[in-house]
Specification:
CATH class of the largest domain: Mainly Beta
Helix content: 10-25%
Radius of gyration: 25 Å
Number of domains: 4
CATH topology of the largest domain: Cathepsin D, subunit A, domain 1
CATH superfamily of the largest domain: Acid Proteases
Distance between the termini: 54 Å
Largest sheet: 7 strands, mixed
Structural class: alpha+beta
Shape: globular
Number of strands: 27
Strand content: 25-35%
CATH architecture of the largest domain: Beta Barrel
Length: about 450
């Protein structure tokens, strides 16, 4: 006990082998392993061994400062985060320096952007060395912002960047915050445009868009529409008006409307040769029995056309249950689809994120025990996954069919091959960035720069 030193709840440390001169760590004896914020994680082989390369934002609330690191992989295993999400992470061994203390630590690589600290020091790294005093901090020395800037260099912003508008409803959502950050990191000016607070002037000579404060929104280079389902009509109308003004929109109004109409989108997809689960649609309750038989009988899936994020989706395990649910929904004048149940999927599906004709990230969503559908908003587990070439072709063809520039495509694996479930024109970033370690927001901004032929001035 006498040989152990006191360590505070927060400390500054150095990771010399990774080229990180200082990083603030959260000391957490409740966590078993240590974790380092990492993104754009890629594996490769060197001298017959598996290595991993990754990027780190070592400074809190600063995504412009980036350190590129490489290290041998010594393990890969499943870890449950503090939010309860399980993910498979790569582990590396790194030398850590804390004051005059230096030793090797096992560190997992994970996207910790949504966390308060870029690094977490777990109890395995402290055994036999430290006693944690949660009331103390920086027991091995603090570092000022000016000293930190000397170590990393001051980041200069690019005053000649693009002016990008984010058309959405809630600026505090993870996906919207990440996109704003990614724009600013690349030196672009970004304006958050609240859908409900925008209005337009239709004029053949000088069409204009306004915000509620009478600010004219005609000087934008690009628009990123992220429209909530209940605002689809008005959000698409605004997007269409920006298009008519010659402003590049990440997804066009037409492509958004096509993807939001579940029935129409499925009709377009099968017209272009894409496989989907057998689906039925009827207007009258009189046709309920025939509708059930069309999809192979119970068990079957019943979906509201207006449902999102797993809501409005019901598993009917028997024919009687299916008839009851269908007739009840139709009595409320709700439009619904009836779809075959893919038993062999075991409640899991794949979400593939597409940007400008490329699949940049994929994850598997695994339903909780007793659940039939894997939805992250309802606690489904996630893990990064590599899709097959057949699945990749299906995903890219689906996005091209609906005319989307950015999309999240959901597919399911069946005994007869991959089947397409849905295409989302405003896919969330949080789950897939966390589980894959990919900086998807940055990829979206880079794609805009490419489309507008914009180059950062050195």
């Amino acid at each position: 006990m006498a040989d152990k030193k006191i360590i505070g709840a927060e400390e500054w440390c150095e990771l010399p082998g990774l080229g990180i001169p200082r990083i603030k760590v959260r000391v957490d004896s409740g966590a078993k392993t240590s974790s380092l914020h990492a993104f754009n994680i890629q594996t490769f082989h060197k001298d017959g061994k598996k290595w991993v390369s990754f990027e780190v934002n070592p400074i809190q609330n600063d995504r412009r400062t980036i350190i590129r690191c490489e290290a041998p992989v010594f393990d890969r295993r499943e870890v449950k985060s503090s939010t309860g999400i399980s993910e498979t992470r790569y582990f590396i061994k790194a030398t850590i320096r804390l004051g005059n203390n230096q030793w090797d630590v096992d560190i997992s690589l994970s996207n910790r952007h949504s966390m308060g600290f870029r690094m977490l020091l777990g109890r395995e790294a402290m055994v036999g060395r430290f006693i944690v005093d949660p009331e103390e901090q920086f027991m091995f020395g603090d570092i000022s912002e000016s000293e930190l800037m000397k170590l990393y260099g001051k980041i200069q912003s690019n005053s000649d960047g693009l002016h990008i508008g984010l058309l959405a409803s809630n600026q505090s959502l993870y996906s919207n915050k990440r996109i704003i950050e990614a724009c600013e990191e690349r030196g672009h000016k970004v304006s958050f445009l609240n859908i409900k607070q925008c209005f337009m002037k239709l004029d053949s000579v000088t069409p204009e868009m306004y915000s509620r404060d009478r600010r004219v929104l005609n000087d934008l280079n690009a628009i990123i529409p992220r429209i909530r389902p209940n605002l689809t009509f008005y959000g698409a109308a605004l997007t269409r008006h920006f298009e008519s003004m010659g402003i590049f929109t990440l997804n066009s109004a037409q492509s958004i409307l096509q993807s939001r109409d579940k029935l129409f989108s499925l009709q377009l997809l099968i017209k272009n040769g894409l496989e989907i689960p057998t689906t039925g649609f009827a207007n009258s309750p009189i046709d309920t029995e025939e509708l059930i038989e069309l999809v192979g009988g119970a068990p079957l899936i019943i979906k509201l056309l207006e449902g999102t994020q797993g809501t409005g989706v019901v598993l009917a395990e028997t024919k009687k249950a299916a008839e009851s649910v269908i007739n009840a929904m139709k009595s409320l004048k709700a439009n619904l689809l009836v779809q075959e149940f893919i038993k062999e999927s075991n409640g899991s599906d794949l979400r593939c994120f597409v940007v400008d004709g490329k699949v940049i990230a994929s994850m598997e969503r695994i339903a909780l025990p007793g659940e039939f559908r894997a939805n992250v908003h309802r606690g489904a587990r996630t893990k990064a996954v590599k899709i097959t070439q057949e699945e990749k072709r299906m995903v890219l063809k689906a996005v091209k069919t609906l005319g989307l520039f950015v999309a999240g495509v959901d597919i399911i694996r069946s005994n007869k091959g991959p089947l397409l479930l849905e295409v989302n024109s405003s896919p969330g970033l949080e789950g897939i960035e966390e589980v894959t370690g990919k900086d998807i927001a940055k990829e979206i901004v880079l794609a805009i720069e490419k489309r507008l032929k914009f180059k950062i001035n050195d």
